User: What shape does this take?
Amino acid sequence: MKVAIVDDHQLFRKSLAHLLNSFDDIDVVFQANNGKEFLNCIDQIQIDLVLLDIQMPEMDGFQTCRVLRDKYPNIYILIISQLTTKESIHRVMELGAHGFFTKNSDPDQLQNAIVSIKENGYYFGNELGSIIREVMLWEKKNSMNVEEDLEIDENCLTTREIEIIKLVSNGRSSKEISEILNINVRTVETHRKHIMEKTNSKNFIGVVVFALKHQLIALDEM
Assistant: This one.
């Protein structure tokens, strides 16, 4: 995968690039100090995945994520930040980032995060499970996404689709799911596409959060 790193801390950025380049099949091809600098050059380079900080000068991670999802939907976005408040996690999910990795996490887990995004379409570290629960409670308390909940009926999902959500949330790839359910990999991918459409989700993080909110899966099943 061709990877870009967008973070205003030069020492962290260069150390992260060195770590990523040590992984198999991962090549850091671009580094930027902020979102504006990155977006100004994005058309000149091929990028599969961007590791994006939240707190940056000129153009922060939230603004950059919004532009990327609107104009470059094929680029995977992994947020890497020390900001883990309920509000920030909610905004990350709402904007459609494909994963969240805290700067306090074990560096060895970063390769797993990237592989998970490539194979499953999303990644959330295990340490964020409790935060996701708090985010959902916070959303309910603040009456967020009420309109969305009224428009989407959890009963629109079939038993097979819920089964696939559970398997994906448990870290299973499409190939593994196809073997478990004895169906074609392409069929699994079709199911995943339909699930995202039915739940009005930008990616599978949104699907998993939807399933958690409607109690179709439990956090301890992830």
